[in-house]
Amino acid sequence: MITSRREIGKAHIPLWAAGFVALACVAILALSGWREWESRQVDLKNAEVDMANLARSLTQHADDTFDLADTILTGMVDRMETGGTSPAALEKIRTFLQSRKYNRQRIRGIFVYDETGRWLATTEDVNLAGLNNGDRDYFQQHRASTDRGTLIGRPVKSRSGGQWIITLSRRFNHPDGSFAGVVLTSIDVAYFTQFYRRFDIGPNGSVSLLNADGIMLARSRDEDGSNVGRDMSKSPLFRTLKDRPSASVYYFKSPLDGLERLSFYQLSSRYPILVLATKAQDDVLEPWRQQSFTRLAVVAGLLLVIALTGFAFVRYLLQRQRMAAALVAKEADFRLLAEQCSDVVMRIGLDERILYVSPSCARVFGQDPAKLLGAPALAAINVEDRPRVEQAIAALKNGEAEEARLIYRVRHREKNEIWVETALRVTRAAETNKIDGVVAISRDMTEQQDLQNKLAALATSDGLTGLANRRHFDERLSEEWARAKRDGTPLSLLLIDVDHFKKFNDHYGHQAGDACLRALARILDAQIRRPADLAARYGGEEFVLLLPNTDSEGCMQVGEKVREALLELGMLHALNPPSKLITVSLGGATNVPAQSMTEHAALIAAADRALYSAKNGGRDRLVMSGQVVAWPDVKSA
Fold first, then answer.
1. Which residue has the higher pLDDT, 488 or 226?
2. Confidence of residue 13 (pLDDT cuts 50, 70, 90)
3. Which of 175, 197, 396, 402 is most buried (CB neighbours < 10 A)?
4. Do residues 261 and 249 make contact, with C-beta atoms less than 8 angstroms apart?
């Protein structure tokens, strides 16, 4: 008995159908798993947003509270230095403090101590005789330092009330400038604790207020105050805080209760404090777990229905073997799906002209589907992206691939250009099984692409200065080193460090320090004249200029321009003799990788040694490959 090819093809139909049903079940299961994972990520992302908003709000609340205390301190210091500490003046101060009823819920009390720590006046109803706070850390710090700024001390137990308090204090002086005593305001730790408990962040959520050194000031989940004053400086967050942004999402295992936590921390821009708002990950994901179980049960039921239906369908094919009817039905299903689909479905012939386009084309591309029939399929694609699309379609038509996925730009009738993601797949003739065209399914990806571009920019830039960050610099250095080695060109590097920057910060304040760094960043950015040049913040007050295809002389010229531009700004720095202006020390190095067996780390090490030599040589100068560039003297500001 001779079996025809048509009969053999029909015999394979049940196997194909059974495989299709199995693949559909696997695809549905995979899609459900992917959807559940995405849903989990969305829940975590929403919780991150909630914690970020809460941390920012509570940081503002803490700043406002400390601002109030600082304002009171400023006024009291002025009163003490103006009126003095004579018995008559002290009596006026005591009368003044007793006559004012401050918000005792927010500001617990105000205290005045003389140069020995003896109590002079307070808002508390206590007998001042015999009371002395000279042993307190804040008192000893003020007595030892001439700094007139506000000091936020570690939590202590109040000697007047016995409760945990946070102290803010200022020094006041005698007319001759000598130490006269301390003015102090106190804030109950319980005030912050009770305020934080008003927020519903789950049964295991918590809010913590810490100082910049990692000392716990207050925590919402602290019934007995056992965590107040606890040193958290050895925790992973504080060990790496200097390398982190001032505010960020942070996942960690809590050293206090051992729970895996999702959190957001926010450093205050005005005070050395940090707010950490956290939720337990189990609390965040519990609703997702319950809903996921329900959805997966539904999917399991659906898969069972599909499997049973597929089995019945295979039996039907075995009985009827109507391939023509099945093909017609598939074509009808395809057209119905295309007509109802929100994505653009397009059929493209071997001549790359449009044979069919779904109605959603009007919404996605702003074009009338009827007018596109017979038109070139690639006409509206951006000229820069078109070669990639042409290459993919050519590979599909030649049988080199069955499917492809691309993201590219397309001209829109009203929106200029949009980003689209297109899945391409070949179609085959039913009789010959030869490729007769391509099916393209496209969707608008403009918003997602814009978001990816913004996230990419944030990941490579420094939040304070706007220059490239350390991570981006490391990547670019590796790339430029490889390019210079390949092309045989020189590669130069300048390390720039602000002279006596810590003294500047201590003297003028951190806001002035930030402004100084931003000003230097603008000067460095102005030196970026070529696409390959890069200015980056290397760390703290240290910056770096990467200068590809630049020899030692060119590197020296750029360093001179940086220094001259900074001097022209004339930013005062009283603690930086002799110029008493902001100056920088510069260390430069040049290498030709093709002539060297070293790696790019050697270039950084050479520039760092040169910078060290510049600082040891008196600062305000450039050292380049072992030679010092002498700069002209600068007149004092």
1. 488
2. low
3. 396
4. no
